[in-house]
Write a structure and sequence with these properties.
Layout (H helix, E strand, L loop, with lengths): L20 H7 L7 E6 L4 E6 L7
Antiparallel strand pairs: 1-2
Length: 57
């Protein structure tokens, strides 16, 4: 798996999730496209993937 690191960022709390433009461009996501974000607590990772069941590509 290829890793993309974003250094020198800070944590923002709230109801919205902001995904860096580099990730959006890499995944070729479009405005309004449905995505799924999974958080693996044991590995401490977030996984962003398109949601093909709910109107993904």
């Amino acid at each position: 798996m290829r890793e993309v690191l974003f250094k020198d960022n800070c944590v923002q709390a709230g109801f919205r999730i902001k995904i860096p433009k580099a990730v959006v461009d890499t995944l070729e996501l479009k405005k309004g496209q449905k995505i799924r974000i999974r958080f693996d607590v044991s590995k401490r990772t977030l996984i962003v993937e398109e949601d093909k069941k709910r109107g993904g590509k």
